[in-house]
């Protein structure tokens, strides 16, 4: 298993190495274009520095559809590109650990120049100083908007990315940690990226409180402290990367030191799960990272070539519209708006009867109770919702035509993409696991949770 | 007529450009929701050779409500009464807005081929049809000759 996943991370190396040499930089352009079209900020200009042209990968927040509901703002956005930094920013644990009655008695802890992790025990505090690692870059993710956070991630509420969503959500208490996790990338090929629970705060400390699960293990004859954060950082590394043949695997938890454990009995239980020795914390293409309140998808840079781009998606929309699908009731032509115009319901908006998949325009007929309607074509009764194109290219496993939609949100994507996400259970709240639409985070209903669309072509 | 829905315009255009065999439907020049319809009696039915006149009206709610259709030519049929009203489920509770004038007229044509005396509108006709089908068919044929052929009224 280990060799397989290492092969998976080895491939970016060849690719990226090629990219550095290749002045036309096709692969890079893909990413640049991708960035420019999805983010609101004009971040698409390639950095002048050659080092910064190297991309380790991208993180995309599930439940966003090209941008955050309400728009991207600065470090708070739907997609974050991890680029090689000018100067190495990585840190690694030092060999030593220091024991103090209180953390504040540690110089490392008090110094804003030095990173440290403190493990609060009943009678004292163990401080592990971290040292600069010239071979790696570190990226921090969390809810905090403080400076140490590279990618600010807030809770995602199901359905908020749908333009017609009714914003009735009461502000809930967030379950995402302010300094949730770190990703550390090797600055040299194959640019392996690893994920660790917890991020360093503004004082460059990680403090595991008295209640956090923590323990010591022996590694290479040394006693090492490790622990988990309250809600933890869960990862799911799909088999076969992120492709048409991808298969979801079990969710596991990564520790502060980056070891892999089985899930705890409940999300924030005090007992860690069993250690999984064969697994590692390397991000492979398609790895999902759950921060309890938001889930991120990792796409490694080697795979941008086989990933649809915004242009692809516009082409797919264009092809669908060229067929001039008709509403069998209004006899009007239906059309999807181009990606960047899909911000409200349009007159030509296609609607679907989710029970049968028949696509119509918006009509008022056949109400059966509050939520259900009868399809004029086949009389099956079920929900009737507007269709929206899945605009976020990163969530597609292939570049197939948008033939299917998720139930009940009506997000349209390729058949294989629908299948993949319908089989991928995502942590939902602190207890439940549920497959969800990647474009809006709405939990899927029924089995399989998606429907093939049936379009009517014009008769004349 | 102002404000004619696109759907009605499109249906009318297609009815005129691609008429269904044995059926004609022409909108009235003063009311584009009112159609003058003729249906030829289907082959191998007691109505063969007859040309039946009907009127079809698209109500304001159309297509969310069914068209109103009536025979103007007298016809001896268990599902069509003396004043030309038609007993056909898709004109009532089985209406769907995905149906069109074209499909409605095709259904009426099919009803002429296959009378259904078990769901009658004209009870006397239906009784005859069930009691003595041969005699009923004979009467239907006579009525066709009398009312639905050229010269007849």
TrEMBL record, chain A:
Residue stretches spanning the membrane: none
Q: Which family does it belong to?
A: Belongs to the pellino family.
Listed InterPro entries: Pellino_fam, Pellino_FHA, Pellino_RING
Q: Please state every residue range assigned to the domain named Pellino RING.
A: 320-460
Coiled-coil stretches are none
Pellino FHA domain span: 49-315
- Lineage of the native species? Eukaryota, Metazoa, Chordata, Tunicata, Ascidiacea
Q: Could you tell me which species this protein originates from?
A: Clavelina lepadiformis (Light-bulb sea squirt)
This protein's name: Pellino
From TrEMBL, chain B:
List the Gene3D superfamilies.
Ubiquitin Conjugating Enzyme
Alphabetically ordered keywords of this record: ATP-binding, Nucleotide-binding, Transferase, Ubl conjugation pathway
Family statement drawn from the similarity comment of this UniProt entry? Belongs to the ubiquitin-conjugating enzyme family.
**Name of the protein in question:** UBC core domain-containing protein
Q: What is one Pfam family matched by this protein?
A: UQ_con
User: Is this entry keyworded ATP-binding?
Assistant: yes
Q: Which CDD domains match?
A: UBCc_UBE2N
Domain of life of the native organism: Eukaryota
Source taxonomy = Eukaryota, Metazoa, Chordata, Tunicata, Ascidiacea
Q: Where is the active site?
A: 87 (glycyl thioester intermediate)
Domain annotation UBC core: ranges? 3-149
């Amino acid at each position: 298993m280990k060799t397989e996943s290492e092969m998976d991370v080895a491939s970016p190396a060849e690719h990226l190495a090629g990219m550095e040499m290749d002045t036309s930089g096709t692969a890079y352009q893909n990413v640049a274009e991708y960035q420019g079209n999805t983010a609101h900020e004009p971040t698409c200009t390639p950095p002048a520095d050659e080092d910064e042209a190297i991309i380790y990968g991208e993180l995309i927040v599930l439940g966003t559809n090209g941008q955050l509901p309400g728009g991207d703002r600065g470090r708070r956005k739907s997609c974050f590109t991890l680029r090689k930094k000018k100067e190495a920013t990585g840190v690694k644990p030092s060999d030593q650990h220091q024991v103090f009655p209180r953390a504040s008695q540690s110089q490392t802890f008090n110094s804003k120049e030095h990173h440290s992790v403190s493990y609060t025990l009943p009678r004292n505090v163990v401080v592990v100083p971290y040292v600069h690692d010239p071979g790696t870059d570190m990226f921090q993710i969390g809810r905090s908007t403080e400076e140490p956070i590279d990618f600010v991630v807030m809770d995602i509420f199901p359905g908020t990315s749908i333009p017609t969503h009714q914003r009735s959500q009461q502000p809930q208490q967030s379950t995402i940690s302010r300094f949730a996790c770190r990703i550390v990338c090797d600055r040299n090929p194959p640019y392996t990226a690893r994920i660790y629970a917890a991020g360093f705060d503004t004082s460059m400390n990680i403090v595991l409180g008295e209640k956090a699960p923590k323990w010591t293990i022996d590694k290479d004859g040394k006693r090492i402290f490790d622990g988990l954060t309250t809600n933890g950082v869960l990862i799911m590394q799909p088999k076969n990367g992120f492709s048409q043949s991808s298969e979801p695997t079990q969710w596991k938890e990564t520790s502060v030191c980056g070891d892999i454990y089985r899930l705890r009995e409940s999300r924030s239980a005090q007992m860690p799960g069993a250690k999984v020795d064969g697994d590692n914390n390397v991000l492979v293409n398609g790895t999902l990272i759950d921060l309890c309140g938001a889930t991120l998808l990792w796409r490694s840079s080697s795979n941008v070539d086989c990933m649809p781009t915004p242009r692809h998606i516009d082409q797919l929309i264009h092809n669908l519209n060229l067929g001039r699908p008709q509403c069998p009731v209004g006899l009007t032509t239906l059309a999807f708006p181009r990606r960047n115009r899909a911000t409200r319901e349009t007159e030509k908006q296609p609607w679907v009867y989710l029970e049968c998949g028949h696509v119509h325009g918006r009509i008022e007929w056949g109400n059966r109770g509050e939520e259900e309607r009868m399809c004029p074509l086949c009389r099956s009764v079920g929900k009737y919702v507007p269709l929206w194109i899945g605009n976020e290219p990163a969530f597609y496993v292939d570049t197939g035509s948008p033939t299917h939609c998720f139930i009940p949100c009506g997000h349209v994507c390729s058949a294989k993409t629908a299948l993949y996400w319908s089989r991928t259970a995502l942590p939902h709240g602190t207890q439940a696991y549920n497959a969800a639409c990647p474009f809006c985070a709405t939990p899927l209903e029924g089995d399989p949770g998606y429907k093939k669309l049936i379009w009517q072509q014009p008769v004349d | 007529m102002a404000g004619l829905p696109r759907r009605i315009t499109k249906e009318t255009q297609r009815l005129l450009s691609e008429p269904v065999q044995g059926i004609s439907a022409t909108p009235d020049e003063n009311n584009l929701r009112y159609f003058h319809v003729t249906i030829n009696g289907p082959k191998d039915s007691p109505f063969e050779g007859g040309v039946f006149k009907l009127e079809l009206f698209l109500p304001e709610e159309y297509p969310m409500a069914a068209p109103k259709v009536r025979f103007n030519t007298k016809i001896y049929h268990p599902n069509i009464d003396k004043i030309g009203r038609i007993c056909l489920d898709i004109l009532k509770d089985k209406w769907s807005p995905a149906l069109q004038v074209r499909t409605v007229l095709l259904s009426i044509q099919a009803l002429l081929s296959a009378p259904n005396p078990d769901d009658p509108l004209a009870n006397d006709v239906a009784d005859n049809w069930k009691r003595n089908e041969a005699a009923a068919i004979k009467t239907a044929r006579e009525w066709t000759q009398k009312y639905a052929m050229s010269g007849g009224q």
